[in-house]
Specification:
The complex is a heterodimer of chains A (371) and B (278). By secondary structure, chain A is α/β, with parallel strands linked by helices. Chain A has 12 helices and 18 strands. Chain A folds into 2 domains: 12-244, Rossmann fold, CATH 3.40.50.970; 251-369, Rossmann fold (3-Layer(aba) Sandwich), CATH 3.40.50.920. In chain A, the strands form 4 sheets. In chain A, strands 3-2-4-5-7-6-13 form a 7-stranded mixed sheet, with helices on both faces. Chain A has a 6-stranded mixed sheet with strand order 10-12-11-14-17-18, with helices on both faces. Chain A has a two-stranded antiparallel ribbon with strand order 1-8. Helix content of chain B is 36%, strand content 15%. The chains are: A alpha/beta (371), B alpha/beta (278).
């Protein structure tokens, strides 16, 4: 799929935030229709895209909607007509468009959305955690979580390619502020995506109804097909991984090969956690990380291959447990589970070092909150 | 445009209005939840001789906008028609207003039966003052909202009211809308036999009486507001039939003479208010 550049990157190096990196990737993907409503910390993505459309760098229709519900509805309509589409949101915006997230997935329409993952109120909080994007798990979306601006760039391009093959919408998660507003060096690797393809599109003259009222059987079959195809999308993600940065597919395995202890995490804070792992490795502790690059499809196979001592560190909870902790345990793995970093509460290298030390010393409770 | 044997009730005004869609070229219908969802057909069948995109309530205009923008970008000739009831207009009002403000290239049709009929006749913002519904069992305490006037104040490219009692006028307005570009809005008065509780053969009669009594005003705006020929004579009060004639519906049986006089006063006010824009 790449016209220029390659997995090791031969593009132009630029200093970009993850927000800007995503906008650059979207420009390369050449969407036909973009619709978005601003919300912190996502707004710079669509502001950048609006500038690109205004300057003529990007030949797309940019629809200024009055809400996130309408943002998702506009791209739903545009995708129904056969257009390549993009939107971005965060937190309350994702909550407000929730209904339409189900519809675009249930309609099996390819679409790409960036989510600058931010806490959902109340109380008000604009900072990072994963509570918003985790709410998409049941809707039938592919959910990726980048760790760096480079990965956000690569994953956004891969999102268009994968979504249009499997007919499932694709959300790219980046952590609020620590990624969305933090500049890193990004290699802008140019790519030529294939022409837009999708399972169906609705055109004038067709005597057909899409999403008419169903009885149980048709609805259940549609839901089953989506579940199966979402699982199968793992193959497409793995197969195309090499064309979009070679990150390892659904997961990144960090110093796991001889590990006795494994930490399972997702998102931007994995970088700090890896530094803590390096510190423990220097002390001779055989610890590594399984970084979940994807929440849906869930990397069950990689989770099942983990060593027997597993700690899952979550930035989103359901009840007292962490969501990834529950998901990992559901694969039949015994886990310790820590919920941390909610509402942007800072968790640094030292915190991870102490936490992982406690884990290795066998002093962690089954479920703990790092407050 | 709509096949016989569809799921509409006897005397359904919506299916009457749907038939008129044949005057629009290359239609693509966007239909949110409501009676029209059921009339358009249950999966895997479709009663419409045009593509139908079924959508959730508040998304109607935004989905229509997305379709329209995409067709334009992809070079497809189409007339996207957002077809909804007063319920979807209530819940989707923000999207409707935004679409009009953006001048989306979309025809919006609101078939207004003055309550949420598909869920069993609950009061809507369009429900008449004092009308009984299942959520206003003693009669609605608030005024109806005048949706078409609100759309007029958006200075949309085309705004019209119409009625299933005046099909020729309705077809003319739909045809005109279909031949224009920009944001076009048609508000169709749609008396509902089971919801308003009148015999199903009287839909046209009730619709006509609404116009003849002055309770529903036929007008259009295309830069200038004009009363429509079919109903302009009812601007003069002496040409109107007694309001009580129109109000002979189950939902109004409890009205006192004083109530009727009060409704008449409100109708006079509505005319006066509208004509300030002409």
């Amino acid at each position: 799929m790449r016209a220029e550049g390659n997995r090791n990157g031969s593009g132009v190096k630029r200093l970009l935030t993850s927000n800007e990196a995503i906008a650059e990737a979207v420009k390369i993907a050449k969407p036909d229709v973009i619709a978005a409503y601003p919300i912190t910390p996502q707004s710079p993505i669509v502001e950048k895209l609006a500038e690109m459309v205004e300057s003529g760098e990007l030949d797309a229709s940019f629809v200024r909607v009055e809400s996130e519900h309408s943002a998702m509805a506009v791209i739903h309509g545009a995708a129904t007509a056969g257009a390549r589409v993009f939107t971005a949101t965060s937190s309350h915006g994702l909550a407000y468009m929730f209904e339409m997230c189900w519809w675009i997935a249930g309609s099996r329409l390819p679409a790409v959305m960036a989510v600058a993952t931010r806490s959902i109120g109340a109380p008000w909080n604009i900072h990072g955690d994963h509570t918003d994007i985790m709410s998409l798990r049941d809707a039938g979306w592919i959910i990726g979580m980048a760790e760096s601006a480079q990965e956000a760039f690569d994953m956004t391009l891969q999102a268009f390619a994968v979504s249009e093959v499997v007919n499932i919408p694709f959300a790219v998660g980046i952590d609020a502020f620590t990624m969305s507003h933090t500049a890193e060096i990004v290699e802008i690797r140019n790519a030529k995506l294939p022409e837009r393809r999708q399972a169906y599109r609705i055109l004038p003259g067709m005597e057909v109804a899409v999403n008419a009222v169903t009885m149980g059987e048709a609805r259940m079959k549609a839901r089953y097909d989506l579940a199966i195809d979402l699982e199968k999308s793992a193959e497409v993600i793995e197969r195309t991984d090499g064309e979009f940065g070679s990150y390892g597919g659904l997961v990144e395995k960090y110093r796991l090969e001889d590990a006795e202890y494994a930490v399972v995490m997702a998102g931007g804070w994995c970088g700090d956690a890896k530094d803590a792992i390096d510190m423990l490795r220097d002390e001779g502790v055989r610890i590594g990380m399984l970084r979940l690059r994807f929440i849906r499809p869930f990397p069950e196979k990689a989770v099942k291959e983990l060593p027997s001592e597993v700690l899952v560190v979550d930035r989103a909870n359901t009840g007292i447990k962490g969501i990834l902790g529950m998901e990992t345990a559901a694969c039949g793995v015994e886990v310790k589970n820590v919920v941390a970093g909610i509402g942007g509460l800072d968790v640094g290298i030292d915190d991870f070092y102490r936490l992982f030390g406690k884990f290795v010393d066998g002093k962690l409770e089954k479920v703990e909150w790092l407050i | 445009m709509i096949l016989p044997g569809n799921a509409s009730c006897q005397g359904c005004p919506i299916s009457m209005a749907m038939r008129c869609l044949d005057v629009i070229k290359n239609p693509v219908l966007v239909i949110p939840a409501g009676c029209s969802t059921v009339i358009a057909g249950l999966h895997p069948k479709s009663a419409m001789k045009a593509p139908v995109v079924h959508v959730p309530f508040p998304s109607t205009l935004a989905v229509a906008c997305g379709l329209s923008e995409a067709y334009k970008k992809l070079g497809v000739e189409a007339n996207v028609v957002a077809w909804m009831g007063d319920g979807a207009a209530d819940i989707g009002f923000a999207g409707l207003s935004a679409s009009a403000a953006r001048r989306d290239d979309v025809i919006t049709v609101v078939v207004d039966n003055e309550a949420y009929m598909n869920t069993g006749t609950q009061a809507s913002l369009s429900t008449f003052w004092k009308a009984k519904t299942t959520t206003s069992p003693a009669g609605k305490t608030e005024e109806r909202r005048n949706l078409s006037l609100i759309m007029l104040t958006h200075k949309a490219d085309y705004v019209a009211t119409a009625s299933v009692g005046y099909i020729r006028d309705l077809r003319k307005k739909l045809r005109k809308a279909g031949e224009m570009a920009g944001f076009r809005f048609i508000h169709i008065h749609a008396p509902c036999p089971p919801g308003w509780r009148f015999p199903s053969e009287k839909t046209v009669e009730v619709a006509r009486k609404a116009v003849m009594s002055g309770a529903w005003i036929l007008w259009e705006y295309d830069g200038k507001l004009r009363l429509s020929k079919a109903g302009e004579k009812y601007a003069l009060k002496e040409n109107r039939i007694p309001l009580a004639e129109y109000l002979k519906q189950g939902r109004f049986l409890h009205l006192s003479e004083r109530d009727i006089r009060e409704i008449e006063r409100k109708i006079d006010e509505d005319w006066e208010f509208l004509l300030r824009f002409s």
